[in-house]
Amino acid sequence: MKKELLLIGLVLILGAALVSAGGAGEKEGKILLGFSHVAMNCPYYLAMDKAAKDTAAARGADIIVLNAEEDISKQISDIESLFVKGINGLIVNSTTEYGTMPVIKKANGMGIPVIAIDRNLYGDYLAYVGIDQWKAGELQGEFITKKLLPNGGNIVLIIGDPGCPASIGRGNGMKNILEAPGNKGKYTILATYKASYNQMLGMQKMEEAIAAFGDKIDLVYCANDSMALGALAALQEAHMTDVMVCGIDGQKEAYEEILKGGQYKSTVINNSSEITEIAVNLLMDYLEKGKEPKERDVITGTILVTADNVKKYYDPDSVF
């Protein structure tokens, strides 16, 4: 009797092991994506994280999202760890345009396709998905010079990171318009502050600008809406309600401020969920079907939003 029970037990254990092995095999058969994300310190980036996971799941894939915390050394290490985990494809929101070049080259050598998202990337990649960063800056520059400060004025510039392609494009695109014929000499950038695309840091840097320049400030231009919302809070706390604020990204809270008709004047659409969904789907189409993107630069809508058209784009139920 004991021998029979022992034999039954062994059979059950073996069966469980086979079921377990089958489950592991099925999981190993799934496509595994890696997403090296520059940061998770604002709603824009968090929306990207959610969209990446939701879209990958909808396509039947697994995805690992790692946060570089704006540190290029950590980002390189993160991507190396994704290689070790056996990813089939890689999405990169790069801290700097050139900093990830060594690991992008390594991905190519390993046959791992790369999608650059949100920020332009140097190297051999399948596609870049995002807005035209330079155009976004130019759109704001044109609005500032033609509508908000047509006679000139003093501007505080708050950027995310000096080496970041988004800050470079959004900042220099705007400056390009300020220096255009007819505008040159009319505008002064009082100072440029780095606030890492973070709302709290945007508020802190605006407080520093207020302490340094006070009533000289006519307008604050920020490289994203989170920093602009922080700057707005600092201005309102200082009772500087005549200073105008402009941002970029099309964050829901920025739309709400524009709808109020107050000092928040404009933003530029940069739908973080949309670009992430496109990036994941492009990568999956390539991995599953060998289908390459029709264009290497997949530019999504880069649209200026002001009081004139904000109702068209505002969605109170949107994630971002």
What do you see in this structure?
The chain is of the alpha/beta class. The chain has two domains: 30-131 and 272-300, Response regulator (Rossmann fold); 133-268, Rossmann fold (3-Layer(aba) Sandwich). The protein is 48% helix and 18% strand. The chain has helices at 2-29, 43-58, 72-84, 101-109, 133-148, 165-178, 199-213, 225-237, 252-260, 272-289, 310-313, and strands at 32-37, 62-67, 89-92, 114-117, 127-130, 153-159, 187-194, 219-222, 244-246, 264-268, 297-299, 304-305. A six-stranded parallel sheet has the order 2-1-3-4-5-11, sandwiched between helices. The protein has a six-stranded mixed sheet with strand order 7-6-8-9-10-12, sandwiched between helices. Helix 4 links the parallel strand 3 and strand 4. Helix 2 packs parallel to helix 10 (272-289), helix 5 runs parallel beside helix 6 and helix 7 (199-213) crosses helix 8. The protein is elongated and about 60 Å long. The protein starts with a helix and ends in a 7-residue tail after the last helix. Residues 1-27 have low confidence and may be disordered.
Explain the layout of strands and helices:
Elements: H1 2-29, E1 32-37, H2 43-58, E2 62-67, H3 72-84, E3 89-92, H4 101-109, E4 114-117, E5 127-130, H5 133-148, E6 153-159, H6 165-178, E7 187-194, H7 199-213, E8 219-222, H8 225-237, E9 244-246, H9 252-260, E10 264-268, H10 272-289, E11 297-299, E12 304-305, H11 310-313
Parallel strand pairs: 1-2, 1-3, 3-4, 4-5, 5-11, 6-7, 6-8, 8-9, 9-10
Antiparallel strand pairs: 10-12
